[in-house]
Amino acid sequence: MDSGSSLVWFPCTQRYACKSCNFVNVNPTNISTFIPRSSSSSKIVGCKNPKCRWIFPSVQCSNCPKNSTICSEFCPPYIIQYGSGSTTGLLLSETLIFPEKSVDNFVIGCSIVSFWQPSGIAGFGRGPESLPVQMGLKRFSYCLVSHRFDDEPVSSDLVLISGGGATASRGGATNYTVYTPFRKNPPSSNPAFQDYYYVTLRKITVGGVNVKAPYKFLVADSDGNGGTIVDSGTTFTFMENQVFELVSKQFEKQVGKNYSRAVNVEKQSGLRPCFNISGEKLLTLPQLSFHFKGGAKMDLPLADYFSFLDDSVICMTIVANDGGKGGVGPGPAIILGNYQQQNFYMEYDLENQRLGFHKQLCK
What we know:
Blueprint: E1 9-11, E2 17-19, E3 43-44, H1 52-55, E4 78-81, E5 86-97, E6 102-115, H2 131-135, E7 139-143, E8 158-161, E9 178-181, E10 197-199, E11 201-206, E12 209-210, H3 215-218, E13 228-230, E14 237-240, H4 241-255, H5 263-269, E15 274-276, E16 288-292, E17 297-299, E18 306-310, E19 313-316, E20 318-321, E21 334-336, E22 344-349, E23 354-359
Parallel strand pairs: 1-6, 2-6, 13-21, 14-20
Antiparallel strand pairs: 3-5, 4-5, 5-6, 7-8, 7-22, 9-23, 10-13, 11-12, 11-16, 14-21, 15-19, 16-17, 18-19, 22-23
């Protein structure tokens, strides 16, 4: 599931092809696919269907009579670009059946070709085509297990709440859950920005020291550049280079007093800063914290922002994005990725337009 995009799609037809999809436990020549003709409720979305405009707001149905609602022309093929990879296909209308609810005329993506995306994505973003919006959910939540289980069949619950009940019972909001309001999406010229869950990040602290990130990076401008989003589909947290350097240098300053830099590992891995900890039995590093509007504070567990690359070296698992060449944009300046959401209960309260979270061992 991906809270940074909205379309729900999966591999489709016997001709489905996935390029650059040689991942662990994935055989790109033997990916399970959905066969539309095997479903009695499946039909291609037409060009005149209002839901076609969810993906193509300015679609021109050139082969349809201007004043007629009857048209045999299909909605154009979609192309969805992700931070890594892409997919293309046709929109279908289907009936989705869940344990406690079925949804008719649910728009899904029937992908024919994908790059770096083998198995499909359930879009949980803010767009009208997302699963939460089409299902009319009031909130949803998840708790991501540790990345150390990446190569094992380990999963955790995704809770969907539409009114009187939820599709899973374990986990949930507690007295320990803290909340920060979602920001209204800026009227950006980039339609992808309308999918994002923007939040207001007040400050970032390392060992209690405010790194003093400039305001223009913490709050998005009128075109959606800058600001902070929460994205379950992004692996490591991304920061614009200027913010990253402030965080990185503060760790170098505080940790460098006790440990030497592993420069060679930094060059090989692309991660930094890295430190040599050979022979250490007890490791103590500064606390990394995100402070949000409303007083919500996310104190990250050490494993969420530093990882062992071998027995003697640890590296920070936050990465720089210099898309703005030292400035702001294009797009969000900070993306809170799933590596930094490990072992957190994460609640998207759509009814009250707020994000909730608390530490929790996910299982």
